[in-house]
Amino acid sequence: MIIREASMTDYPRLRQIYLDARRESFHWAHADEMTLDDFDRDTSEEQIVLAEENAQVLGFASLYVPNRFIHNLFVHPTASGKGVGGLLLKSAVAELGTPVTLKCVSENHKALRFYKNRGWKAVVEEGEPGAKYWVLVYE
Prior knowledge:
Elements: E1 2-5, H1 11-25, H2 38-42, E2 47-53, E3 56-64, E4 69-75, H3 84-96, E5 100-105, H4 109-116, E6 121-126, E7 133-138
Parallel strand pairs: 4-5
Antiparallel strand pairs: 1-2, 2-3, 3-4, 5-7, 6-7
């Protein structure tokens, strides 16, 4: 598996991964309101790295470099549990340096366990009722 910077030719697959992964795991959100265009809006001005194996894009991370912030980390549901997320996370930390932060929706218990199992610390829970998230840091 390789980690590399995304190019515009990767965007159709990245859009699909973003849509499929959110529809699969964001049980608190309205899946019918999610679209392929969300990817472009939600990754604007961010550096995108992706995981690829046998010419197949399996997942991506979008990084807001000025703030050392991992904005998105998504793995296609069919690639879940294969180490893709861990490799993307390591690559993002190496690219950004430490300390690095991210936010994780409080309802996303699986993702919170994923980050905590890799040494991330939950710092503070923020947001309005129904839209709470944890700020996590890796130092």
